[in-house]
Amino acid sequence: MSTFKRYDEEFKQSLVNLYQTGKTQSELCKDYGVSASALAKWIKQYTRR
Question: So what's the pLDDT on residue 44?
Answer without folding.
Answer: 97
